[in-house]
Each structure stands twice: as C-alpha cells, then as structure tokens.
Amino acid sequence: MTAGHRPIAPPATIGILGGGQLGRMTALAARSMGYRIHVLDPDPNCAAAPVADRCLTAAFDDDDAARDLARGCDVVTLEIEQIATAVLDAAQAYAPTRPNSAVIGVVQERARQKRWLTDKGFPVGEFRVVQSAADLKAALATLGDCFIKSNRGGYDGRSQARERNAARADAAWQSVGARPAVAERALDLKCEISVMVARSQRGDVETFPVALNHHEHHVLAWSMLPAPIPAGLASRAIEIGRGIAEAFPIEGLLAIEMFVTTSGDLLVNELAPRPHNSFHASERACVTAQFEQLARAVCNMPLGDTSVVRPAAIVNVFGDLWKNGEPPFADALRAPSARLHLYGKGQPRPGRKMGHISATGVTAQDALAVARQAAAVAGVTVGVPDSLREFGLQA
Fold first, then answer.
1. With left for phi above 0 and alpha for psi between -120 and 50, is residue 79 left, alpha or beta?
2. pLDDT confidence of residue 2
3. Which candidate, 198, 200, 222, places its Cα nearest to that of 211?
C-alpha cells in the first residue's frame, strides 16, 4: 500500500463541509468509531454543532475558512454538494478532500451532470438545456409535458415547475427564477428507486441494496430497504450505479436516483455525492449504515458489509407537524419496532425536514406498514400509489 493509500485511523479528525442533518448523523457515526469532528457551516446553530468538536461559522464560498478547517483535519468530506469548487480546492491544499472538486463541479450543475451522464453512456430521460424563456418555449414545443428544474440547487422540489404548454413558457421561466435550467420530458413512471455506492481511495467498492422511494409534492415521503422489486431490475440498477461511481471515480459516497418507467426503462435521474435521505433506513436495516460507511470510505478504512440484517423503512417528518404544538411522539413510539430520529434543527416551519420515523419488519413491506402506522399516530399521513401495489404494498 502506498503512503497516499494508508488508512486514516481514529483518533484522526474528519472535517465536514456542511452541518445539516446529514453532517450531524455522519458526525455521530464517526464519533462512535473514535474520530474527532470539525464542521463548517453558515449557521452557528446548525444541526451538527452540538456533536462536533469544533464548528466554524462561514459561508460555503469562503476559501479562507475552508483552509482553516482543513489545517486542523486529517481528511475533509461534505454533506451538501452546493459547495464552491474553489473552497474544495482550498481545503485540498491542506488535507485530502473527498470527494474532490472535479466530481462536485459535475454534480452541482444539472446541465453538466446530464451531459456527463450522456457522454459516459448512462441512460437518462430526454432533456433540453434552456438559457432563456425562448429556449424553454422551444423545448416545450419539442418535448411537450416537462419538468423544468433550475440548473443549480433546487432540490426537494424548490426552483422547479411543471409545464406542457409552450404558450406559458414565459411564466414557467419566471417560476424557476429566470435563470439557466434543464427541461426534462415528463415520464410515465412505475416507481422511483435509488442506489448507494461507497468507494475508497484505494478503489474498494461496496453497494447498498436498492431502495424503493415515494415522493409527495416533489419531496421524499417514505423509503424502504431493500426494494421489493424484481432481482433483475435491482441488478441492473446496481450495475449502473457502480459504473457511475467508477467513472468519476468517486471517493466517498454516491447516491444515484433512478426512474423505472411503465415501459420497463431504467433511467438515471440525479446524483448526490453524499449520504442520502433514501438510505436513512440503512441505520436499521444494514450491517453498516451509510454514515459509518462514509467515514470508512473517506478515511480509506476497510468498507463495511452492507448486507440487510432486517428490512427497514422510514417516513419523513416535516415542520408542519408542529403547527398545533408538540407532536404525540410518545404515542407513535408504541408501534412495534418504531424509532424516532429528530435532527436537532431550530424552529419547525412548514416544509422543513425535521426528522424521520423508522421501523423494521420481517419484510420491507411490513417495515413500511409499521413506519406509516407510527407516523400516522404522530400526525403524518403518507400514501402508497397504485403503481406500487404489485410490489405487495397496501394502501
């Protein structure tokens, strides 16, 4: 093993760019292994602050702060991809930064990401890059019904719109901020799935079982692991996900969201080079959860076993739940195997992701049923679309 490929063992210090819930859960997992944690985030009261050894308050485009973070760390990673690439390069001068700016530069712009996937031969739905209302009008005239997504940011349904009428292109353009965007042809979907791949610097790769996901209002409502889909479909998804991770090549985690169409096509939707909401169930389901796996991967430690010990599912909890006071979580936790995960965020507000409820079961379908039952008691009602009934899910 070369010097550059040596493991970064505890009690080394891991720096995390971003202190949201993903940073918090990564910090908790890494601390249990004996690592120290330094975090950089614009919010001094970010979710990760209470569990970090040091929290730097700085913007995600602050090169000097990134250098300050990296000088005190043995390795730097991230929990949000909207980090300026110059910041990653600044950190890289003082500590290995995984993933690097080349990966983030591709992922953080939708147009560049779509073109990269297409150039590498990975399957994506039909799309057009639009720079103006006139471009969008032409795209709608060609593609018809489209989802219009801003080129940067805009996850969880923000800065996104749906339109099919070219005559309304001006209004649709304004609704996504009148800035560069991607117009994606709307698809007839059977289901949405995701794949998580972990890769270390020395090239070790592990994939998690495929997750089955359901979105409501463009935001993940629930997820289950493993996905109760045909084995052949799962194998194809893992093969694509692994191929994308190797093509970068990634150092850390890469989540790949995919669409399964009613005609049987498997298409890549989006990439996220970090822990992902759809794999929170790995904390309950797998030998090694995604957060510990991230610490192992960026520290070049042996990757953990991702086998499913017991199927699990999660239901997301949003700030709307607090509109009438504290939710009845004690009653919700009477459901067998239910567990509450709150992220330590500040004031709840409508649409803000505050946590999730997880559950396990003999099957993933059983786990989802328990998680939905517990969530309903707490005040969260989520559905199951008709297209998923063939996978043994009940309304």
1. alpha
2. 40
3. 222
Ordered by where they begin, the domains of the chain are 3-97 (3.40.50.20), 126-185 (3.30.1490.20), 189-390 (3.30.470.20)
Give the Å distances, CA to CA, from 251 to 176, 197, 254, 297, 305.
Answer: 32, 10, 9, 7, 17
In the block, tokens 């949003």 appear at 318
Report the pLDDT value the prediction gives residue 154, as an integer from 0 to 100: 64
CA distance 213 to 365: 12
Give yes or no for residue 3 having a pLDDT over 60: no
Dump pLDDT digits (tens) for 58-101: 999 999 999 999 999 999 999 999 999 999 999 999 999 999 99
Q: What tokens appear for 335 in the block?
A: 């459901």
Q: Across the beta sheet with 13-17, what order do the strands follow?
A: 54-57, 36-41, 13-17, 75-78
Torsion angle, alpha carbons of 271, 273, 274, 280, to 10: 30
Q: The whole model's pTM is what?
A: 0.96
